Amino acid sequence: MRSLPLPLALTARLSPVAVLACAGWALTSGPVTPPAAGHPAAQKVPVGASSAAPSATAAPKKYTAAPAPCAGVPAATVASLVPGAKPAGREIPSTDADLRRTCSWNALKGYDYRWLDVSFEITGSDREAREEYGQRVREKSGGGAVPGLGDGAYSVVNLTTEDKQQTREGVVLARAANALVVVTYSGSDFESKKAPGTDEINKGAIKAAKAAVAALGAGRG
Questions:
Q1: 25 CB contacts (<8 Å, ≥6 apart)?
Q2: 86 lies in which domain range?
Q3: 45 assigned to some structural domain
Q4: Which residues are registered as beta bridge partners of 75?
Q5: 3-class SS letters over the chain
Q6: Which of 2, 42, 155, 209 gives the lowest tally of CB atoms within 10 Å of its CB?
């Protein structure tokens, strides 16, 4: 069997990719306005007692740390989506592994190339996760909701062509409480120059995303 050189874009894709960790967020509460003089709620504060109102207790985070990403997808799922890849995968270095962790699998079997990336991102609250999820969905186009996955999920598939070589990439964004899961699944055929079908890539990305969302329990607070 003759070997074919990988297109420039896919060759670069095989190189290690540095992944920046998400920065943490902090919640602050505004000052409490004291009641006006004469108001029934206005009371004199005894000498030595604090006049500051007690601050509201922040809701506990469901997930406090990202789980081990390379254990987030079962070996059987990796084998079906990325034939020939090592089940252990390769974790991408992160500047803060508590907030964000990513694992990557890729392999060329014959003329078929596949890669799968799974990322876990932990935010400071459910609200922050919802806002981040909404922003990312707005940045995508042509996709749709994925029912029954986390507290909300969205998938989109795109086709690109470079030097007559097609590559199809599917992305699934999922939110579960204060955590985000991002799955990217792509494929190319170097013999036919064609890409796998939209349905194959979309279903593969969703399958990996379901496994990853289920693995979030390892980072539960």
A1: 123, 124, 125, 128
A2: 69-219
A3: no
A4: none
A5: CCCCCCCHHHHHHCCCCCECCCCCCCCCCCCCCCCCCCCCCCCCCCCCCCCCCCCCCCCCCCECCCCCHHHCCCHHHHHHHCCCCCCCCEEECECCCCCEEEEEEEEEECCEEEEEEEEEEECCCHHHHHHHHHHHHHHCCCCEECCCCCCEEEEEEEEEEECCEEEEEEEEEEEECCEEEEEEEEEEECCCCCCCCHHHHHHHHHHHHHHHHHHHHHHEC
A6: 2
pLDDT in tens, the chain (221 residues): 444 455 544 444 544 333 333 333 333 334 444 444 444 444 444 444 444 444 445 677 899 999 999 999 999 999 999 999 999 999 999 888 889 999 999 999 999 999 999 999 999 999 999 999 999 999 988 899 999 999 999 999 999 999 999 999 999 999 999 999 999 999 999 999 999 999 999 999 999 999 999 999 876 76
Q: Whole-model pTM?
A: 0.74
For residue 187, what is the domain's CATH number? 2.60.120
Q: How many structural domains does the chain have?
A: 1
